[in-house]
Amino acid sequence: MLIKKGAEANLYLEEWHNRKVIMKRRLSKKYRIPELDEKIRSQRTIYEPQVIHKAKEAGVPTPTIFMVDVAEANIIMEFVEGKQVKQVLNDLPPQERLRLSRHIGGLIGRLHKHGIIHGDLTTSNMILTPYGKIVFVDFGLSERSAELENRGVDLHLMKRAFQSTHYKYAKECFEAVIEGYVEVVGEEEAKNVLEKIREIERRGRYVSER
Amino acid sequence: MYCLGIESTADDFGVAILSFDGRVLSNANSAYMPEKGGIHPREAARHHAEVAGKVLAEAFERAGIKPQDVSIVAFSQGPGLGPCLRTGATAARALASYLRVPLVGVNHCVAHIEIGKLVTGAVDPVTLYVSGGNTIISAFEAGRYRVFGETLDIAIGNCLDVFAREAGMSQRKGAPFGAMVEELASRSKTFVPLPYTVKGMDLSFSGLLTAAVQILHERKHSLEDLCFSLQEVAFSMLTEVTERALAHTEKLEVLLTGGVAANKRLQSMLNVIAEEHNARFCVVPKEYALDNGAMIAWTGILAYKSKITLPVEKSFVKLKWRLDEVYAPWVEG
Hints:
- The complex is a heterodimer of chains A (210) and B (333).
- With 210 residues, chain A is α+β, with helices and mostly antiparallel strands.
- Helix content of chain A is 47%, strand content 20%.
- Chain A is globular.
- Chain B has ten helices and twelve strands.
- In chain B, β11 (253-257), α8 (264-276) and β12 (280-283) form a beta-alpha-beta unit.
- Chains A and B meet through α1, α4 and α6 of A and β8, β9, α7 and α8 of B.
């Protein structure tokens, strides 16, 4: 059963060996040439489970991977019960919203500390389980990197996600994310990343000359 | 009632006159052409100052109205090149003061979207704005045009221009680099792998450009193959992010504008995703997709109707004025 028609992949909720699973199938895109299409799909299909595993080593909850089919660009993984943070964040009591944001910041900090860049940090890609745990999903655009630049871009994306979907609370939520982040990576590292974010914001503006 | 709009963010100096109901009475323009290399801000500003009188006169003549008939003066206040912006702003301030009419400062990026909506009939689109200086994926949400994705380094137009220059091409009036790259690309079907960089909703073209230039100088692949591959990778990146924005916002229109909008390959890619998401695909015609005075005049009218004006003493140009900093109350009406 199709449960989410994404821009890049479709998610199906399936029964697989008596288990409720998510089948993530990367779609062939008609707009791009087959050479590029196959490359992008197979690379992302191989890569995503690897990074999901690395995230677990870093102590960040992620879905369990059951099967990977590169030829079909198909990944079968655990169905995580819960709600997207995107759906719940705006309606939470203020204190709870900040607590959750700090918790998210801590998880991002763990990823970064272990050289993992999520690549698509939005509140749609975080599931709040009934037990209050946050599970990061969709590592489709993630990469392994310890570069400050990449960490900066990652957090900049998080900030932008807040601004576009939770604009009323964007500032306080992002500040809470940074608080949680600092607790994990330390003041010094966090300072560098924040400076990088400012640089990225300046750079992402009007560029006329190289 | 009429609005006179002045555009001068980069290489174009444009003056247009529009009626308040959105009729374009005139849209005059003069483009600065560097002899070699990219836009030199000071030289471009010198050009603007030289042609300002002539272009203004042309706009009035074609519109068939007198300066005294103008009700407001709008100008591009940013983002853009400082010397160019200041030249346009000076002309606008002088005109507004002399005619004793209100002055309106317009954001160049907002103007591209607004004129695109006016000429294509789009109402609430996801906009892909691609030019030599900008690469932005935007959609309106809660009072502002939000930036859903943008380049983290150079603009797509800049990427294509620099590659063309590295390949020894030279630009002429009516034959921009982009069109040359497109023509060469259309002669090849051989794909040379190049780095594809999408980070969430944002894009990066600098690594792609460096790799393409490096391979170009190795001379192992033809220029046609490289133009083809560069376009395929760069435009697939743009299309992927636009599709993500479309899926995320669930809007029903895709608007393509800016100088790179003229590229047929890019148009065809976006058309595919628009169809898949049951969205209408709108391409802004060249006259209004390139930098022009009409977009400034029209946005000036919209802002003025929302009671937004700018006192001359506060009309400083804003070189880095972001699209998402602009409060746009006229959109929700």
